[in-house]
Design a protein that fits this description.
- About 7% of the residues have low confidence.
- Helix 3 links the parallel strand 4 and strand 5.
- 25% of the residues lie in helices and 28% in strands.
- Helix 1 runs parallel beside helix 2 and helix 5 runs parallel beside helix 6.
- By secondary structure, the protein is of the alpha/beta class.
């Protein structure tokens, strides 16, 4: 999309070393590392995926860029962001492989819910749920940013349940979350998804992890495993080679 045809208060930006073009709101929630890290957790054999809480489509479209044979459903509750997700799918040449659904994640694969995704139809669900508890953080005055970041105590459970409904047996849920939410996630997955693999993401050496990338398989009971962490920047502040490979070159995580 040329700059003169952008909707008001929308910018056009490039990620993944310029290979993915994204229109996004000028203010409010903006695309960051989380979406690209989440997309990198998509298994290479994925053919049918959904991006829950897709925003402008960053994680789902980044996954399609790496998975040339996959199809995606981008699920976003905000109509303005869902519209941008559709524009971004078209601008990057993914319109034939991508559907956009404007809906609440909690309504998916339920009576009266949207027609896509179908129950037990997906190989993969990508999920970047809101992560700040509303009773512990001040809500942003920007409505879109608040919706993207503020969670209820049951949010992880509800999103994991929706993913369980949509995933085929043996399908994968990939989620990015804060380390302090790990126990809540494991409780939400219990009895439904297992074989959880956890990848901590550290901002620099010796710093505590600021994110966890979790991948779980529907119907499995294997105990969780914590993998060696990804360090985003060295002591000098420069991006590490490992981070650059993922964030700029589109290399996979949790392969």
């Amino acid at each position: 999309m040329s700059p003169e045809h952008l909707p008001p208060a929308v910018t056009q930006d490039r990620v993944l070393g310029g290979r993915l073009v994204l229109c996004q709101p000028e203010k409010g929630h903006r695309v960051g590392h989380d979406a690209i890290l989440l997309a990198a957790a998509a298994p290479r054999e994925t053919r049918r995926l959904a991006d829950f809480g897709a925003g402008v489509g960053s994680a789902g479209l980044a996954a399609l860029l790496r998975l040339p044979h996959a199809e995606a459903v981008l699920v976003e509750i905000d109509p303005a962001l869902a519209d941008l997700a559709g524009r971004n799918a078209a601008a990057n040449g993914f319109a034939a492989r991508c559907a956009v659904v404007c809906a609440d994640v909690l309504a998916l694969a339920r009576p009266g819910g949207p027609p896509l995704p179908l129950a037990e139809s997906l190989d993969l669900v990508l999920a970047n749920p809101p992560f700040n508890a509303t009773d512990a953080h001040q809500t942003s005055p920007d409505a879109g940013r608040a919706r993207a970041h503020m969670a209820q105590s049951h949010t992880l459970r509800d999103w994991a349940t929706a993913a369980y409904r949509c995933l085929a047996p043996g399908g994968t849920l990939a989620m990015i979350l804060r380390p302090e939410d790990l126990s809540t996630l494991l409780a939400a997955l219990e009895g439904r998804l297992g074989a959880v693999r956890l990848l901590p993401v550290h901002p620099r050496p010796e710093a505590p992890a600021v994110r966890l990338i979790a991948r779980a398989i529907k119907g499995r009971r294997t105990a969780p495993a914590i993998l060696p962490g990804l360090i985003l920047a060295g002591a000098d502040g420069a991006p590490t080679l490992e981070a650059e490979a993922v964030l700029r070159e589109g290399q996979a995580l949790l392969a």
